[in-house]
Amino acid sequence: MAVRGLHKFWALEGVTPTDPASDVHPPMPGKRLPKAISVDEVTRILEAAGTDTATGLRDRALLEFLYSTGARISEAMGLDVDDISLPAPGEENEPGPAIVRLFGKGSKERLVPLGSFGARALDAYLVRGRPLLAAKGKGTPALFLNARGGRISRQSAWTILKTAAEKANITKDVSPHTLRHSFATHLLEGGADVRVVQELLGHASVTTTQVYTLVTADTLREIYAAAHPRALG
Q1: How many CB atoms lie within 10 A of CB 94?
Q2: How far is CA 43 from CA 88, 139, 178, in A?
Q3: What pLDDT, on the 0 to 100 scale, is given for residue 135?
């Protein structure tokens, strides 16, 4: 950068007839890799979230929802009850696969499946938790409610996750976006196609999603280096 600036100055001052560094561009900065936590760490956080109270059921449902769908926190906070489609219980009296309607950037709509763990947690909240919270409010259609019966805020969602992480003895810095990153990374590690993950995340370009493939590649290299007898010499 200093050399390019010097050549530009010399050319402007007439010291040199041309600026030989004008076509030289600085190297592109490396892509900042998303931070993900392990499946075990996610499980510990989810199991630490919530109790059998209205707010506890909400907390567990919210975190299960974020990890099961990869939704942005703004998308989850903007959900209404009608955006969720939970099938009727099956033979085991549990909700089957659910479909969620999310509204991403630019109000672009996408449909995302919700796994059985998330569906169970959400069903428990809707049946035993939300009605108690809604009774304290003014009839908002919001899915996730605060203790006063209004739509929960992003700041409250952060606090819910931080509290669960502390209970699970997770010392890493985690945020709702950490669950989104982990959702994508774990899908790719499980063999999901990058185009499918792109659709689930609501990325306009697959290039954005491909950053996660770098994360899984790094993980593979680390495992290989630690496990293969002739990886390091």
Answers
A1: 12
A2: 26, 33, 13
A3: 95
Task: Please provide the size of the chain in residues.
Answer: 233
CB contact at 8 A, 124 and 95: no
Which pTM value belongs to this model? 0.75
Q: What residues are annotated to the active site?
A: 72, 105, 177, 180, 203, 212
User: How does residue 19 score in pLDDT terms, banded at 50, 70 and 90?
Assistant: confident
Amino acid 66: pLDDT: 95
- Collect all residues with Cβ–Cβ distance below 8 Å to 188 and sequence separation of at least 6: 194, 197, 212, 213, 215, 216
**How far is the C-alpha of 170 from the C-alpha of 176, rounded, in Å?**
14
Structure tokens at 233: 């010499």
Q: Which of 148, 189, 164 is nearest to 63 (CA)?
A: 164
Give the per-residue SS3 of the chain. CHHHHHHHHHHHHCCCCCCCCCCCCCCCCCCCCCCCCCHHHHHHHHHHCCCCCHHHHHHHHHHHHHHHHCCCHHHHHCCEHHHEECCCCCCCCCCCCEEEEEECHHHCEEEEEECHHHHHHHHHHHHHHHHHHHCCCCCCCECCECCCCCECCHHHHHHHHHHHHHHCCCCCCCCHHHHHHHHHHHHHHCCCCHHHHHHHHCCCCHHHHHHHHHHHHHHHHHHHHHHCCCCCC
